[in-house]
Structures are given as structure tokens and as C-alpha cells.
Amino acid sequence: MKAERCRRSLTSFIRHFWQVVEPETPLIWNWHIDVIAEHLEAVTRMQLWNVDKDPRPEKSIDSLIINIPPGHMKSLIVCVFWPAWEWVNHPHLQSIFSSYALALAQRDSMRCRDILRSDQYRTWFKPDWEIREDRDTINVFGNTRGGVRMCIGVSAGTTGFRGHKLVVDDALNAADVTSELKRTTANKWFDRSASTRINDPRKGCKVIIGQRLHEDDITGHALKKGFYEHLCLPSEFVPGETKPPTSIGFEDPRKEHGELLFPGLFSKKVIERTKVELGTQDYEAQHQQAPSPPGGEIFKLWWWGYWQLPGMNLPPVRIEMPDGEVKFIAPVTIPTDFQEVIQSWDMTFKNTSNSDFVSGQTWAKHGARTFLLNRVNARMSFTESVEAVKNLKRSDPRVGTVLIEDKANGPAIISTLKNIIPGILPVAADIGKVPRAKAITPFVEAGNTFLPHPDMPGYEWVNALRHQFTSFPTGAHDDDVDAGVHALIRFYRGGTEQKSTFSYRPLPQTSTYIPR
Predict the structure, then answer these.
(1) pTM
(2) DSSP secondary structure string, 5-74?
(3) Stretch 331-358: mean pLDDT, rounded?
(4) Residue 113: phi, psi to the nearest 5?
(5) Angle 475-318-440 (CA atoms, 0-180°, nearest 5)?
(6) Domains of the chain with bracketed CATH
């Protein structure tokens, strides 16, 4: 009877075979294990679909992302118990398992093989197959019915390897989260190499598991494709941030703010200690599946002030605080004159679908206050970038200094425009982005920095700009941050005191700016 329950249910299989892989550790059960098992069973149904004869099975999943905190059995459930359970009834299934470290994938490979070779497995299920002697290694083993379980490292070559499914467990080391090169390398490997290793693309399956580390980690990269089921389980429940129900009908059953995911193992005391040990940013990413902490890490959402044009009576800007409270920030009327108006540019290396955006911003200073007046942001070629600088400078004749970061396309643009536009100054990127940003946070925190009110017509781009600042440095893009930080450093570390009257003529505002 136990064997039959295990044949039918991955959950039962995990319960009864836990001691094979963890003989000294008691199993502490929690509802999230049932949820993950149900979604994996849906992936198994997809692999078994007879495409040519039958309609697609009900409650089947071909592309699945599981985001769950560390220590919640994700690797054991997905990479150890699941493939061993599949071979009970379907020993022909072939699977590829990968991780950023090959040693981690090899560890789970050995654990899975321990289950398959255990006396309990052989006695309960009496399989009509054996592990092949000529294909029994730490990286790949197969059975006499055609089934194969192989493991590879992320970014490793996959030529010659194929399977019914691909599983990626922790594609990126948490220590490499800030490396754009390593993120891009892992994402490209998944797109161009790993994802092509499916036997039958009509029903082949891909499963990604891990914690959120960055907005552009493999989870963020895959979610942009639009067809992945997303099973997201944060340590603490936050109302209003739950994901839509998955296709098999699951939605987070928790209702109260702060309600724990796994209180039997991760109690409130353990969670509070974890917050101290990891720090806000890493805790929010790894435990809350939010690469950027609520409200921001370096730049807090409630630090910004907002300006409106004279005669307007716009409502306060509503900001939701991390604890669920709501703060309202009343806008100020923009001054009639400024001591200095400047523009700041962050350039990109090339105009491709994966490159950063070019960002140009107009900032003004009035006493201790600074105001963002205008912004353009788009992927641009070199020629388009040159024209964008001309157009933004032309849009406000009061601009004196034009800052252009001395990297990427910046030096060539400076060389092209220095005899056409007066006041161009190169900005050296001699320190890292994070120390540079932290240098001006006291002025933003003090309430001295104002953005356009997002309800003003033409200034809707403020929401995207705020998001980039609050998600920095783990956000997908930082071009707006770089441009803004350079301008604010200029203001707060020195500059001219020449009076300049600001014209209230509305300027075209767009985040997909195309230079004329």
C-alpha cells in the first residue's frame, strides 16, 4: 500500500524515502512541499503527452519557475526525489540538471542514485531495469530502459546531451550578483545552448529553481518571455504582492502581513536573525524574492520630493512604506529662477536589444534644492546619441554645463560636439557606481531633491525613473542613476552661481525618445 501511494504521489514518495538521503535528519513537513510536488507532477504529465494522438493533458506545465528561500528543500525535492520518482513508472525519461557549480549538480546526482540503488526502492517497486554499468558516472547515469540523468555546470557545453526536460538549479552564485558579465553569460547559455537540448520541442520542459538575486537574473530573464509559470513563495507574506494563481490553480494561502512560509523550521526568531546576518538587500532578494528591497536599498522611495508648475493643485504623491503604512508627499511649486541649470548624460556602448539605455537629464539648482526638469531615455546608436545631446541642449537655452560620462560612446561624442556645443565637460568614472551613488544620498534623504509630479501630463516617465533608483544596484538598468548622480555631485560639490530664469514651456517627455 505504501509503494502504491508512492507510485501515484511525489509527496508520498518524498515522505517515505526521506531517510534514504537524510538518515540522521528528521523530516519537518510543511505545505510548500506539497505545492512544489504538485507543480512537478504537472511537468511530468507534460513530458508523457502523446502529442500525435491525445489532447494536451489537463494541469500540465512545460515551463516552470520556482522561487523559494534557501533551506526549504528545493534541490532535494526537484533534483533528487523527483527524477527518482519519475523512474518508478516512467524509466525512459531523460533529464538534464545544471547548476552554477558542477559540484552541486554532482551532489544531487549521487543522492538520486542512492535512492535508486536502495533496498527499499528495489523491494517496493521491483523495477524491470538496472543502472547500466557502461553509463554509471558521477555526471551521467542511465538505465536499461533508456532513461538518463545527467548533470552539467551552467555555461558548460551541452553538445550531444539531450533530454525530455532541462532543470536549472541556482544558475548564479549569490557572490556574482553584481557582475553583469556573469549574469549575461548565464542567460545567454540558457537561451542559446541549454534550451536547445530538448528531445521534442513540442512537449519538452524547462524548470528553473532558486532565489531572486537581481532583476536581470535567470528568473527575471525568463519571465520576460511571458510563457513561464511562476511559483513564488516568499518567507514572509506581503498582501498585494502575491503572484496570480498558477495554471493548476495554486495561490498563496496566507492572508496576514508577515505570515511565515515555514514556521516549523524558520520561526520568527530565526527570520529576524537572518535579516541581521544577510542585511536588508540580500534578505529581500533571497527570502522575499524581491531583488530590490521594498522602497529601495540605496535610494529610498520616500526620500524624493515632487514639484508642480505654478497654478496647479495636484494631490500629494502616495508612497507605500515597507511596513504597509502609507505616506503622502505634498508637491512644491517650482521656483521662478535657478542658480544653475545643467544637463547630464550616461552613454551606452552600442545600440542592441540587450544594451543599456542612453539617458540624458536636465537638472536645476535653487538654493539647497535641486530639480529634475527633463529626461530622455532610449537605446540609441552613436549618431542618434549625438543628435539627442543637441536636441536636449536646444530645448532649454538656459543650460550652461553639459556633463558626459567619459566612457563607452562618451569620449567620441565629446570629441564630435565640443566645437558645436559650449560647456561640454567629461566626467571621469574613476570610482564605482555604488560609492558614487552613496556620496549624494544624504542630500536626497534630506528632502532636497525634487522630481516632476507623476500626474503632470508628459511626465509619466517619472515612475520608471524612480523604479530604477530604488532598484539600484540590483536593477536591470542603471543609466538614469548614473546620469542623475553625476548631476547631483556637480551641484553639491561645487559649480557656478550664475542666475538663470527657467521657462515653463512644457517639453516633450518620453522614455522612447527618438532624436530628430
Answers:
(1) 0.68
(2) HHHH-HHHHHHHHHHHH-TTS-----HHHHHHHHHHHHHHHHHT--TTTSPPPTT--SEEEEE--TTSSH
(3) 81
(4) -65, -30
(5) 50
(6) 2-261 (3.40.50), 301-501 (3.30.420.240)
